[in-house]
Design a protein that fits this description.
heterodimer, A: alpha+beta, eight-stranded antiparallel sheet, two-stranded antiparallel sheet, B: two-stranded antiparallel sheet
Chain lengths: ~350, ~170
């Protein structure tokens, strides 16, 4: 697989299926793992980083779920390619910096991604469509078991898996759920919900993880504590919280439907109208309008556009995706034109 | 009515005590100025600063700064002073080298420093120092102790751990 092959491919997790997919976009689990006796990436020499990369590369070929995968060596990619992988949620923004000896392995379904030499030697990630953390855990757990047979992980009985940052020590696990909460935002209840989440030692982030702002009604919620609880407990804790948020969002949607249906319908259809006819549109405005269209589709107000199409639009309207599609470097103004054209094309075909 | 120290317009409802260079300073703020201030503070302190701050806190009063610089991890050469600066450890062995500082730090971050999740089937176990403490009979004793001390959170954690171990045993 070449990086350009990804453009016409829809990631498994964007299908818009799975439990509670009207509120939950995706569920993701990542495991941080390090090789014993090798310094963590930030403290390692170039030769050591190379050795880690080589070792991981050899081993991953032998792991069954990783067989149909491609390893992208970041030093070989230009800045648009790197941004493109970030936009597809296959790697972090941090991984695009100082790219020597860094790589990311992506499977054909694009639901598994393994970053090599990010903050830790290995960051294994699994993404599922909808609310599905346990299933994600089962798959990633088996990949981790297979890797542990071939690699010596840095591990202590009492501290667990050892990571560069002590905030990840223990299970090395972070479970995250990407939520779409337009009704809680519109009814101004979201601040209260976010405050409650923070108190329970979970974190809320934006669409692209660490350091990004929540935008367009999308919130990524994940556990902060990784030590002292088993993986199952951590997932159960996140699930308990997410179930409550789903319930609140669903309630808020119902209340809006009974109390101000016309206003909601107006707003949703205006959003669709703008998307179908705009000639210039920024990515921020796109996210906001698509969020309303997704709500319209979830509530059955918009019947001819499905979640998968909307999910795809979120991704392909991002800056690097537009430039990959056009195969040229585009300025911000050029992108806004191109983006509007692409959205019109996709939505008016339906 | 007390007015906000910053804007001087709205009533002060948030009262802060800042300690800068051992100087105590009281601040009375309205809600809006307090919010701005906390946002500014969050920006100022990244995660590594926060960790470094916490790491500082763990420094035992008897130890000298020299020790933090002098003792280096035999595998990667990182000192605890380096860790305080960058907020990242150097390698897996650092956890062993700096155990006395890291055990309380991990406890502050996670509320526990005892891993009870999965373990790599053939991971290289660097040390077995704490192995004794995690056997089933020991856990049961710890549970009794926690209950008698009314440390219910700890008790619940131990109970779950025992349950998990017993379930594992049954399977085997």
């Amino acid at each position: 697989m070449q990086i350009n092959d990804l453009i016409n491919h829809t990631s498994e997790w964007l299908k818009g299926t799975g439990p509670h997919s009207d509120v939950v976009i995706s569920s993701r689990i990542r495991l941080a793992r390090n090789l014993d006796k090798f310094p963590f990436p930030h403290w390692a020499s170039k030769a050591q980083l190379n050795a880690v990369l080589e070792k991981c590369r050899q081993v991953m070929e032998k792991v069954e779920p990783l067989k149909n995968s491609t390893l992208f060596v970041l030093a070989d990619l230009d800045s648009i390619d790197k941004q493109f992988l970030v936009e597809r949620h296959l790697m972090s923004i941090e991984h695009t910096q100082k790219t020597e000896q860094k790589a990311v392995l992506v499977n054909d379904e694009e639901n598994i991604a393994v970053m090599i030499n990010e903050e830790d030697h290995l960051r294994i990630q699994l993404m599922q469509s909808g609310f599905n953390l346990f299933e994600a855990w089962e798959i990633i757990n088996s990949i981790d078991d297979a890797l542990a047979k071939l690699l010596d992980y840095a591990y202590l009985d009492d501290f667990g898996y050892l990571t560069a940052c002590p905030t990840n020590t223990g299970t090395g696990m972070r479970g995250s759920v990407m939520l779409h909460l337009p009704a809680l935002v519109m009814s101004r209840q979201i601040e209260r919900v976010l405050a409650a989440i923070a108190k329970l030692s979970f974190t809320t982030r934006g669409l692209y993880g660490e350091g990004t702002q929540a935008s367009g009604n999308f919130f990524q919620i994940s556990n902060q504590v990784s030590l002292g609880h088993s993986e199952n407990e951590i997932i159960e804790n996140i699930n308990g919280l997410i179930r409550q948020i789903i319930e609140q969002e669903t309630q808020a949607r119902e209340i809006m439907l009974t109390k101000s249906k016309e206003v909601l319908e107006d707003r949703i259809n205006r959003s669709l109208g703008i998307l179908k006819s705009a000639r210039i549109i920024t990515s921020q405005e796109t996210i906001e309008l698509l969020s309303m269209v997704r709500l319209g589709s979830d509530l059955g107000m918009i019947k001819d556009i499905d979640r998968r199409t909307i999910n795809e639009l979120f991704i392909i309207t991002q800056p690097a995706h537009l430039q990959k599609l056009e195969n040229v470097k585009l300025s911000s103004d050029q992108r806004d034109l191109k983006r509007a054209e692409l959205i019109r094309e996709k939505l008016n075909l339906l | 009515m007390m007015l906000c120290d910053v804007c001087g317009k709205n009533p002060a409802t948030v009262h802060l005590t800042e300690i800068i260079d051992e100087q105590m300073n009281e601040l009375h703020l309205c809600e809006e100025c307090a919010r701005n201030k906390s946002a500014a503070m969050e920006q100022q302190f990244g995660l590594s600063d926060l960790l470094a701050g916490m790491a500082d806190f763990e420094k035992p009063s008897s130890s000298k700064d020299e020790e933090l610089v002098r003792v280096k991890c035999p595998v990667c050469g990182l000192s605890y002073a380096d860790f305080k600066k960058i907020g990242r450890l150097g390698c897996g062995d650092c956890y062993h080298t700096f155990r006395k500082y890291l055990a309380p730090l991990l406890k502050r971050i996670h509320g526990s420093n005892q891993h009870i999740g999965k373990n790599p089937s053939r991971a290289k176990v660097v040390t077995k120092i704490n192995k004794k403490k995690t056997g089933l009979p020991e856990l049961k004793i710890q549970l009794q102790k926690a209950i008698s001390e009314e440390a219910f959170e700890e008790a619940a954690r131990l109970r779950d751990q025992i349950k998990e171990m017993e379930a594992k045993k049954d399977k085997e």
